[in-house]
Amino acid sequence: MTGWLDRAAENAHKFAQRNPRAVAAGVMFSLAGFAATAFGVASPSAPGTEIAQQIISEDVQPLPVHEQLEALAAHQLELNRSTAGRANDTADRLLSRLGVNDASAASFLRRERGVRDLLDGRVPRLFTARADESGRLKELVVRMPAERRDQITTHFTRVTLHPAGHGGWKVRREQAQLESQVRLGSGTVRNSLFTATDEAGLPDTIATQLSEMFSEEVDFHREIKKGDTFSVAYETLTADGEPITWNEGAGHLLAAEYINRGRVYQGMWVRDAMGRGAYVGMDGQPKQRSFLASPMEFSRVTSGFAMRMHPILQTMRAHQGVDYGAPVGTPVRTVGSGVVDFAGWRNGFGNVVEIQHDGDRSTLYAHLSRIDVRKGEHVEQGTRIGAVGATGWATGPHLHFEFRIRGVHQDPLQVAKATQTPMASVSRAELQQLATSARTQIAAARSMGAVRAE
Ligand SMILES: [Zn+2]
């Protein structure tokens, strides 16, 4: 029950051990409950951000850490270099970008089977090389997404290459834990929320989560107004201290404020020991759940959201949804309220219903034996929309279910997990502690936005 508080305390302790100077200078920021270890400032692309960063550094005093990191970087500039992998990378191009001039390393990267995939342009990678003054490689570290898809938000793959003498190389491949950093962001709406969050340098996933957090209170399609403001604190995941470039950093929105036509809305994200999270108000009251955990009352998942051999086409394809096994005729319900966008026959999907929800989210239900709704119809959460079947390309009766946010497929099981309420296992005292730190984060982010608006 106190699992995540313990973890946060442990992380804070580790941070203190690694950064004794920073802690002495009073940089430690209470992030009770969040598994965060450091404090940073979002780097918005909008002009005038230099000023904002100065101000924020006065509020939370991250300067000592920055100075420390800069001094460290300057000191080792000639020996250490990092770069992101590029689509057209060859061993030579990559090494020259890293300032490495080493024929043995280049030929090892070119010819070795288990290493060549490091140059695969389709996988996001971060390379860090350590070389001596003549450019000979002493170490190459490659960081990329975790091999197991279910670990993609908690782990990364680290591959380390070392010279082993006589022109040989030693390769170590391991799964390591990602760490998180807290960042702040804020902005003012001029046209749309997403333009404003873009200008503020927020990742798209954080912008989506912001609109989700307040989806029951603010209609982001109709009610937002020029001059509305938002202030957020969110986490960014790092691999050995480097922000990851895949999954848009994969972090979560932690605390947020949205001021709509002068009305103030605040919320925070709470996670329990099981890793389940929910949006709650500062009073700890859950913000209304917008989606049911499953489109059927009783069902079992027979195929998840992953790469798999397609049962009919017999090729490897990404499975863009989840399959639930159930007998023909089992009622299928909409997981959220919305408007029916499509109801009818579509080749491989057979009888299919598509529903448009608030916040640019949509769901799709395929292979139905019958359809109970019509295009344009408004449906409430839990409404029966059809029944399980095996129409279209289906090997047997099942429901194929997809969840999209702004057109991008999401893992429905992750979405369901994210909208389940963990409140039962979080105590009142813990919630109060979280609210205190969330308010501090919001205030710091807000002061950043006030400066930029001037
Ligand atoms: Zn499917």
Architecture blueprint of SSEs:
Elements: H1 3-18, H2 20-24, E1 38-39, H3 49-60, H4 63-76, E2 80-84, H5 91-97, H6 103-111, H7 113-116, E3 126-131, E4 137-145, E5 155-165, E6 168-177, E7 179-188, H8 193-199, H9 204-213, E8 229-239, E9 242-243, E10 253-260, E11 263-271, E12 277-280, E13 300-303, E14 307-309, E15 316-318, E16 322-325, E17 331-333, E18 338-346, E19 350-357, E20 361-371, E21 378-379, E22 384-388, E23 398-405, E24 408-410, H10 412-419, H11 428-453
Parallel strand pairs: 1-7
Antiparallel strand pairs: 2-3, 3-4, 4-5, 5-6, 7-8, 8-9, 8-10, 10-11, 11-12, 13-16, 14-15, 16-23, 17-22, 18-19, 18-21, 19-20, 20-22, 20-23, 23-24
Helix pairs in contact: 3-11, 8-9
Zinc ion binds at residues 303, 319, 321, 323, 400.
Q: How many strands appear in the DSSP assignment? A: 24
**Shape call:** globular
Bound compounds, each kind once, are: zinc ion
Q: What is the beta-strand fraction? A: 25-35%
Q: What Rg is obtained from the alpha carbons, in whole angstroms?
A: 25 Å
Roughly how much helix do the residues carry, as a percent range? 25-40%
At the first level of CATH, the class of the domain at 300-419 is: Mainly Beta
CATH topology of the domain at 300-419: Glucose Permease (Domain IIA)
CATH structural architecture of the domain at 300-419: Distorted Sandwich
In DSSP terms (H or I, runs of 4 or more residues), the helix count works out at 11
Return the average pLDDT rounded to an integer. Answer: 77
Low-confidence spans: 1-63
CATH-level-4 superfamily name of the domain at 300-419 = Glucose Permease (Domain IIA)
Distance between the termini: 45 Å
* Structural class computed from helices and strand pairing: alpha+beta
For the largest beta-sheet, the strand count, sense and barrel status come to: 10 strands, antiparallel
